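Archive entry: two folds, one per protein. Generate the first.
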Amino acid sequence: MTNQEAIDIIKTAIAQIEWDYPMDYAAAFDKAITALKAQEPMVPVYDQLLTQEIPRCGKCGYRLVKGNDKYCCRCGQAVKWE
């Protein structure tokens, strides 16, 4: 099962449980969807600073160390180095 398939199943479950259970379940499912999306690697965004390109997280913009960071230490987003 891919992350996207899991997200689709969770979204279906949210629609089904909203009528019968407290909103805590829906909030937990939303958090699970966020965590699954963060596992999908994202290519960093590069800022030009004088003569250097600075890699930044594509999700939150936090500065990354090229080649060393596999995940953003601020938001947990997986990083895909090209």
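Generate the second and append.
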Amino acid sequence: MGRRKRRKSRALLRPRKVIPKIFLCPRCGQKTVKVWVVNDKETKEKRVIVKCGSCLLEASFQYIEIFQPVDYYHKFIDMYYEGKLS
């Protein structure tokens, strides 16, 4: 006589945390701020543009390889609260 077969329990997989691609605007409060990497044709270097889709608040930064979109967004927020963007 044998024992009853036990069910094998599956390990619960937690979803990976994903860095967001759309952010909150400091001026209008809507989730419409996007970050783009653009090639400048005149200077032939990469630029990063952070722009709100609803209130059109915009900033441009020099491209740095180790930075991610979140880093540029935080630079954008810092500039806004320092009063450098209007």
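Annotation attached to the second fold: The chain has a mean pLDDT of 91. Residues 29-82 form one domain.
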